[in-house]
Amino acid sequence: MSHKFRIRQMVRLKQSGFSNAQTSATTIYEVVRLMPADPSGEVSYRIKSGPFERAVRESEIRGA
């Protein structure tokens, strides 16, 4: 599977069922690193907003 997003592209987290999801879904993140696929074949990314950085799967984010 190839990466849908590229480094320096702006993305948002997709809405989920968690109570704090509304806040997270409005935050814009920058893709800072492309990561390899996990055992299921889905690729991951490192995304950053301000001083906070996290790893996410491609299915968890959308374009900003």
What do you see in this structure?
By secondary structure, the protein is mainly β. The protein has one domain (10-63). The protein has one helix at residues 21-26, and strands at 10-13, 28-35, 44-49, 52-57, 61-63. β3 (44-49) and β4 form a beta hairpin. It has 1 helix and 5 strands; from the N terminus they run βαββββ. Strands 4-3-2-1-5 form a 5-stranded antiparallel sheet. It starts with 9 loop residues before the first strand and ends with a strand.
Write the layout of secondary structure elements.
Layout: E1 10-13, H1 21-26, E2 28-35, E3 44-49, E4 52-57, E5 61-63
Antiparallel strand pairs: 1-2, 1-5, 2-3, 3-4
Q: Sum up the overall morphology in one term.
A: globular
Largest β-sheet summary: 5 strands, antiparallel
How many discrete domains? 1
How much is the average pLDDT? 87
- What is the CA-atom radius of gyration, in angstroms? 11 Å
Uncertain segments of ≥5 residues (pLDDT<50)?
A: none
Estimate the helix proportion, in percent: under 10%
Share in β-strands: 35-45%
The helix-strand sequence is EHEEEE
Spatial strand sequence of the major β-sheet: 4-3-2-1-5
Q: Could you give the distance between the termini?
A: 22 Å
Annotation field: number of helices: 1
SS elements, strand count:
5
Query: Would you tell me the structural class of the helices and strands?
Result: mainly beta
